[in-house]
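Researcher: Please predict.
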Amino acid sequence: MSDEKAINHARMAMQQELRKLNREVIHDLVPELGLDKLTPFFQLVARARGLYIKQLIDITNEVSDMPTDAQVKELSLLRRSYEELINGAQMIETAIERGYIDTGAD
């Protein structure tokens, strides 16, 4: 077997093992995640997005020049919260797509 084939074979074996381990570990922690369990999470993401947008609009309406440090700090906290929730949503989506979490939908 050539070096390239051996490397590809090893890479595929590692990916299969990683998928198997992810399935076992994640599925044990979160065996099923149906729409009823995801809806509150979707609402939380929407609320975080809305609060960020509202704060941005409020700042725009309150200042004529640049926002204060406190306003920027608050906006930054809201953005970071939203980004964390979006990252979580992407992880959940990936876990479902890869079969690590069951959705109860067939």
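Model: The chain is about 80% helix and 0% strand.
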